[in-house]
Structures are given as C-alpha cells and as structure tokens.
Batch of 2 targets.
Target 1
Amino acid sequence: MAEERKNEEKRFEIVTRTGEKLKLDKATVMKYLTDNKEISDSEFNMFFQLCKVNKVNPFLKEAYIIKYGNSPATIVLDYKVLQQIAEDNPAYRGMRHGVVVTNDKGEVTERLGEYKLPGETLIAGWCEVYRKDREHPTKVTAMFEEFKATKSNGEVNSNWATKPCFMICKVAKAQALREAFPNLVGSNVYISEEMDSVEKPTPKPAGKTTVTNDIIDVDEDGVVAEEPPAEEN
C-alpha cells in the first residue's frame, strides 16, 4: 500500500484538448513510449511539460519521446497537434501549401499542391498561413536538401524517397504555423519530420541530458548546464 501511494505521488496529471484526464509517470513513459529505454528525470519532466502545455495525449501518438541508447532524448509533437492549435484560434483563416520544382531546362515553378511531374526535381515545399488580424499571410519555404532524412550510407530514408512532396510540405506547414502563432505553438516545438534530417546527438556524460534536440541542456537538478570552456592550444 505504501509503495502504491509512493508511485501515485510521482504521477502528474494532464488534461487533454478533449477534456480527458490522464496521469503520467516516468515508469509508464518508459514502458509504453520509449520501448523500455531509460530516460532521465529531466527528460521525463520536459516531456510531461510539453504534453501538459499543449494538452496532448502521448498514448494517441500526439507527442513522442525518442531515445537512442545513451544519447539525449528528442521530444516532438505530431503535426496534427500544431494544426489543431491554430484552428482553435479565432484569427486563423486557413492555409495554402505546395512545392517548388525545376525541370530539365532549369526552369523553376512554384506549384500549389503536393506533386511533381516526371522529369522534374523537387527543390522545396512552401506554406502560407492566413490570419484575420494580419494584412499579409505568413509564408515559409523549406528546402528539400536541408530536411530530407538519410541513412548512415547516404541513401534517402524510405518516406522521404517515396513521398518527398508530402514530407517536405509537412515541414513547411509546421514552420509556417509556428511563425504565424508563436505565442500558442511555441518556437521550439518541432515535428518528427523536422527531426529526421538532424544527426543523432553524441552521448553526453552521465548527469546531463539534452532535450528537444539540443535546444536546452539541463542537469539532473533542472539547472541549465554551461558549455565547457574551449581548450587552449
């Protein structure tokens, strides 16, 4: 009984966008969301705060905590959560998106929609987000070469190889939504497609962890870690 009470005290409540209440604790997150991979207290706290602030249910794959061995965890939101946050705002007026391609003559075309024709090369994805309280839309262009995910041998990952227009457009839409609604979405909240192209971080010494892809370093007491001084020659 005492052990159950102790475990209950370690659980933290989240109220989702649908009004559902759920409780998270570190052991549950590791068992069901990281495939039993060990995470630090700091990583759990950052993941919990992301879920709480954005009112998401991680068991419905609305948020992910990705852990590779002893490397720092990467914490991301699902794209549909960013879109839902924007749609709930009364100022939101929708979005337009498409791709930028070039043909064998070197001619560049900006196209509405997620497709390219035979012989064309995909250059980028773009998105415009409209708000009722702004005269001009927020437009973002995401370059394909900067975000495409590759394997260790240099080959493009399957999703980016088979659905390149779809993938780069998701990146463009996420970036445009963040810029259009920075106070609601947050400037440091990413989707998994944006993380695909980032090199897996180098493991750090025990007692430190990097959360949300090297955006913030904290130690086990939640204190921001300072970078070590550069070595002198």
Target 2
Amino acid sequence: MIGRIIFLVALFLVAVNSLSGWASCFGDYRSLVGANAVASGIGSYISGEDFTYTTAICSTWQNFASGSCYSVKCTKGQNNLACKNAVTYVRSIDSLGNTCSGSGTGMHVFDLNDVPFNLLGSDGASCSGNFEVEYQPVDCKSAGLVSGGIKLGLAPNQVDPWCPAFTFSNVGDSGGLYSVSVSPDSGANWYSFKRNTGNGARWDCNGGAGKYLGKSLSFRLVSCSVNSLPSSCVSSGKTLTVNNFLPSGWCSNGGSPCNINSWQASNNFGTTSNALAEEILITTPNDSTNTNSEPSTISLALYSDGTDSDMVILSYVIFVVVVIILLAVVVYQARKIQVLRGERV
C-alpha cells in the first residue's frame, strides 16, 4: 500500500511540473560544431563539444536558456508521425526562428537534433514531421548531458585580452548561468561580466578592463534555478567558485585577438540540483565587486534567496497533503469493508 501511495504522489508531482508544446526536427546539429554557428555561441573551439543530444528552443527564451537541459516525451504525433514510448534528454544550443508564443501544445518549443527526434517519434522517414511533447527542465548531470568539470573557451577571433569575453559549456545543475564574475587576483577583487545579447553562453567583460592579461583568472558562477527555466533565469542560489581556473598565459600569443583555446575545470555544480547535502556549503556574497571574502578552494555555496528551497518546501507540503488524503481514503475503505463483513472496529 505504501508503495502505491508513493507511486501516485510521484505521478502527481510529475503532472504538476510538466510543460507542453510541440517539436520539429532540425537535422544534424553535429555538422555545425566546426562552423561555430549555433545561437548559444559554443562550438569546436571548446574541446570535446558534443551536439548529438541538442535542440533549438523558441527565440524568446533562447538567450538566457542557453545550455539548459530538458527531458522530452512525445505525446501525440501529427499527420503520419507516431509517438514512441520513450523519454530523451536534450540541451539547448540554438534558437528557433519563432518566438515563444501560444500556449500548451500550440507553442512551438523545440527544434530537435535528428537523433533525439527519431528516438521519440517516427513516420518512417528520417527527421520528418512534428509532434506534441511534454517536457521538463532537468539537472544536466543527472540527465547524462554533462560529464566532468565546467568548460571555458575563447571564441575565435573575438577575444580582446584587455577586456576578454569567455564562453561556458558543460555546465552542471540546470546548465544555464545566472551570473559570472572574474577575479584577476585570486579572489581579492571580483568583476561582474555581462551575458552577450547574441550568444547566451558567452559572457563579456563589464568591468576591470586592463587587469586580465598575463594574470591567472578565477571565476565565480551562479546557476539558473532549474524550476525557473525555460521562461526565465532566476538565481538558484548555488555558486561554483573556481580559483585560478585559467593560467597566467591564457592568452598565449598576448595579442588581440587571442589565440583560440579552451580549458576544463576539475569541478562543476552538484550532481543533482537538490543534492546540496552532499556538497560543501558556505555563505559568500552573490555577485558583489571588490570583496576579499572568497573561499580559497573550489566549492559550492548556498545562498538564502529561497528560489529553490521554496520549491522544495512546496513539494514536501504537497507530498504530505496527498499522503494524508490517501491514507484517510485507505482507512475509510478498510472500515467500510469491516462493517460489510459484520465485524466490529
């Protein structure tokens, strides 16, 4: 009985969190890695970039949703396309031509790479037709779309060493970044960077110009809350600090633009978006400038903005209420059966 109750509660919570829309098939995004042409701004200059399980997302959300990850399930095929009984996971790297307009299954949300598209539905042809979907933002590492530490790359022919721009990939947690700060002096001073308006995974110099060339650089990254995506990027309250991520010779040619290069840190955001108990939790300023309170090791910080904690509490409340209701029903039915059998309670 307890197993059935837990199963029913799980189904209820999934139903509450599911979003709906429809998806089309882009083709093979893997052919565009070398072209560095997707709207997020990532590409072959970041070592090991994989475009297999990827998607474009409607343009209104694309910029701040760059790198975010989703579970997707086909619920209804259009024309001759039939749904398969499968769920797959994709990462947002590109922009659809249409805005995020309409509602429910009337909204064109995804343009999937051919591999995940054909896992979900098929009309006998490759990458043809469209289907209605249910989707949810998910933790990228749990979905298997992120492995190892966070990656950083220098966009080809675009990086001024005096006021550099950096592009991030392989981001854990939701996959999306809420804010980026850079320190040229091991955390004594922090300078906020600004998301590029055209390439959502790229963050541009917004302060501290002239302080970066020839310096070992540290990064402080705040992820987007999984629950806020894809329609907005709200701070998760979780911060990954990577001290001395880039060596002092990061712009190896010392020129403008810098040579193309990429690096991978040993750490990332937590294994799952809610598994904070398994990480080192500390409290530091979220996005301030010129502070010397930064920890000296790579760590994950929990802030008290309540974004994710409120959702967790709400889920627990819903869980408890549903369990109480189901237990009441079970007790009532048991008493009813006893009365029918002529037994005394």
